[in-house]
Every structure is written in C-alpha cells, then in structure tokens.
C-alpha cells in the first residue's frame, strides 16, 4: 500500500447528509459504548494499524472498538513487528475488546537487512499457529504476509533486466534464476531484434510469478505448511495471487484506479477459485491528508459490502497526522455510520454470479490504463485494446455485478452458474 495515486470522487450519500442535519439539530442518530453487545454485520470491518508504539495501538482500539470488529496489525517495518511481546500485547488488547486480529509480523531490517524477524527463525510455524489459536481463539484470523506482490511485478523495470544481468542467470544453479533467464531471453530477443513474443504464451511469466514470487517464497511456504490463513493487499494480478497460495486478497481501493474494476477483478478471482476477498481503503493522495474524505470512504466501504466483501479495512498510515494516524474525525464518523447502517438496514445484494467477463489465459495485463504493462515485462500487445474496450462496456452495463475472470482449464467459467458470460473478443454486450 504505497505510492498511492488519486482516485475519483463520489457523491455524498444521502445517509451522511442526514447525519449532518441531525447533528446540527442536536438529535442523536447513533449511540455507541462498550456497555452493549455489538450486532454481527456478517463482515469483518476495521482498520489496518500502521503506528509505531503499543500506546498508539491501544488508543486506536479504544476509539474504534464500538463500530469495528477487526484490527489488522499492519506495521510491517518498525519495532513492533520485530518484537513478539509487543505483537502479543497489542493483539491481547484488541481481542479483549472484541476485535478479531490479522497479524503482520513484518521484516527485521535493523540488525540484518533483508532477513525475517523472530517469526521466520523458527523451523516450523506449527507452534505459532497453536500458541496464537489457543491465546486468541477464533479471533485470530491469520497472517498478513508481504504486500502488493502483483503490483510490484507490474511496476518493476523488468524490461531493462537483461541489460543488468546479461546471460549470467543461466549459470546460476537455482530454479528461480533459471526461470528468469528464460524470460530474459524473450526480453533480449524483443529489445535487440524487435521479435515480439507470441501473445498467447505468457505461461513463463505466469509460472514465474505463481511459483517463485509467491508459492516458494520461504515465508509463504512456511505459512502454507503450517495451515495458517494468509492475507495481503494488491492492486493487480489477483487471479495469480490466489493461484500462488493466498487465502484472502484485499483489493486496494484508491490511487487512480476504478473502484468497480478492482472489485470485479478480485471478486471474480475469489469466486472462481473458492477463496475469500476484501477491500483495503487506501490513499487518495501522496501527501496529507492521504485518505479521501468521509463520504468517499463510506461509499467505497458500502460498495465493497454490497459486492460481497468478507473483509473491509481502512489503511491508517503514516501515523503522524492526527492522534489516530491519518484518520480524522470525519473519516472515523463515516466508519461509524457505515457500521450502524449495515447492522440496521438492508442493502441491495450485488454479490450474486450475474455476469462474467473472461480474459485470455495467463494474460497478466495490469488494466489500470491503456498502456499498462503485461506482467511488468511487456508493453501492450494486440489484445489489450480490445480487452480494454469490452471491459469498459461490461463495467458500464453491469457495474459491481460483473466478475472479471480468466480462461483456465482448472477453473472453467462453466463451473459457476453465471446468467451471462462474455469473452474478451466480444464486439457487443
């Protein structure tokens, strides 16, 4: 959740207008307090804490505990994640206040740059799963591991890769390096000779990402072996994030991307692969105030909820703008209103398998703009324009009811009872 980009504004929902009017009149619309049991909204709603101290975490929990049920310890690169005692103190406090927890144990860079911290030093993570499950029960949901693997893949400068390494990779007796060398040879042929790859064969790139970026990453492999549920956030390539082994993907709603398109991608991938998904409300701006206003946050949360998200969280980082990180009273009020609404009102269910758009097999196009990369290695090919056109048509017609999926013999679109199925080379809907 970094290098955020601006996203479009949304119309202020009528319910927030009502809140403002009632507030002016001095009539209470909502009541909060820890003296009553919260209603179950059927979805995990909360914050992704990006602070630096246990005191900050405790203060944020106290602030939001009456209108959330999820706390993500998202501090991946600071002293909290290096310290097992602090991790457990924060999660003890969160669970004692009725919140479920997802733990990011992060990277320890202070002593040994690039090495994982205490968590990964263990030969097996079985004991961690047992200890934390016994300690927090079913409120321990799993581990947030790594961040934006698909986005990093899309935005890396792979096209210059061959210039830096030449043919040296072919002499490294390491499977990941050898796989990269095969891709390097394709890049070399393209850059030196103008030879474009067959647009139907991005299998090398897909396999490299699934196998070496995710599945065989040492931390991911240990988590999978221990049966710990794994989470992360991304802004592209959700289909292959799941294939690599992630149990739950958060679609990052923010930046310069379409909310409905991000939801369509992650929702379709999750449905086809029988996984769960969520939304991470992240930055709108690269500078203060970072997050969008309360009306837009409410709208993104509600759209996620109606689309079937199992997890909805707001990314609270950096932790230096307000007492609660970057969260202002306006944004916290929007979260409180959202909780009240989903526990007291009925909304249209947009999560049913209505329509699917099927894109080509292994077609790892970022889809954020017409010139987005394919797997980070390639520029647009002869299919990207048509894919972009038909995607826009389907989203315009179906909105949040659309799933974006991929041709995959292991996950055939016929396995889901969609009312309507479109393919990328369709000319009309």
Describe the structure.
There is one protein chain. The protein has 429 residues and is of the alpha/beta class. The protein has three domains: 14-146 and 217-344, Alpha-Beta Barrel (TIM Barrel); 153-193, no CATH class; 355-423, no CATH class. It is 40% helix and 14% strand. It is built from 15 helices and 13 strands. The chain has helices spanning 14-25, 54-64, 79-82, 84-96, 126-136, 149-155, 161-165, 175-193, 203-215, 218-226, 238-244, 259-272, 294-307, 329-344, 384-398, and strands spanning 44-49, 70-73, 100-103, 107-108, 115-116, 140-144, 230-234, 248-253, 276-281, 311-316, 355-359, 402-406, 420-423. It has an eight-stranded parallel β-barrel, surrounded by eight helices. A three-stranded parallel beta sheet has the order 12-11-13. α2 packs parallel to α4, α9 crosses α11 and α12 (259-272) packs parallel to α13. The two termini are 35 Å apart.
Average pLDDT over all residues: 84
Supply the CATH architecture of the largest domain.
Alpha-Beta Barrel
| Widest sheet, order of strands | 1-2-3-6-7-8-9-10
Question: Looking at this structure, what is the CATH superfamily of the largest domain?
Answer: Aldolase class I
- Estimate the helix proportion, in percent: 25-40%
What is the radius of gyration computed over CA atoms, rounded to a whole number of angstroms?
Answer: 22 Å
* Helix/sheet category: alpha/beta
Separate helix tally? 15
